[in-house]
């Protein structure tokens, strides 16, 4: 089920993501095979509405993937400023470091 959930996020199917979260709320902070959370994945794919939904459903904003990257680090790297603004407004950690010692500012 988890892999289908993450595939649904990558495809941007917000209604399906919402339905799956309603049926199984623990998915909100689950991890895929690479250690990414739904929020990290949604932000990495520039899925703003899904990111908002995940935050509303209790996604941990500063959760890290297997490399220690947060959602904010990912969007800074990709240049997705609108999602970066959302995460900052929601109080994402600005000074955290990943496994290589990089910060959001370094990626920005």
How does this model look, in words?
- With 108 residues, this protein is mostly helical.
- The protein has a single domain (2-107), classed as Serine Threonine Protein Phosphatase 5, Tetratricopeptide repeat.
- The chain has seven helices and no strands.
- It has helices spanning 2-11, 14-23, 38-44, 48-56, 71-78, 81-89, 104-107.
- Helix 3 packs antiparallel against helix 4 (48-56) and helix 5 packs antiparallel against helix 6.
- The longest helix is centred in the N-terminal third of the chain and has 10 residues, at 2-11.
- It starts with a helix and ends with a helix.
- The model has no long low-confidence stretch (mean pLDDT 96).
- Tally of distinct domains: 1
CATH superfamily: Ankyrin repeat-containing domain
Structural class comes to: mainly alpha
Tell the overall outline.
Answer: globular
Q: Under the CATH scheme, which architecture would be assigned? A: Alpha Horseshoe
Rg estimate, integer Å? 13 Å
List the SSEs and their pairings.
Layout: H1 2-11, H2 14-23, H3 38-44, H4 48-56, H5 71-78, H6 81-89, H7 104-107
Keywords:
globular, mainly alpha, single chain, Serine Threonine Protein Phosphatase 5, Tetratricopeptide repeat, 108 residues
């Amino acid at each position: 089920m988890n892999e289908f959930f993450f595939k649904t996020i990558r495809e941007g199917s917000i209604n399906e993501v919402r339905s799956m979260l309603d049926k199984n709320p623990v998915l909100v902070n689950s991890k895929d095979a690479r250690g990414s959370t739904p929020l990290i994945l949604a932000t990495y794919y520039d899925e703003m509405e899904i990111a908002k939904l995940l935050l509303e459903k209790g996604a941990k904003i500063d959760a890290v993937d297997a490399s220690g990257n947060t959602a904010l680090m990912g969007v800074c790297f990709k240049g997705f400023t609108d999602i970066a603004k959302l995460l900052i407004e929601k109080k994402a950690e600005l000074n955290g470091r990943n496994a290589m010692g990089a910060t959001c500012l370094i990626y920005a």
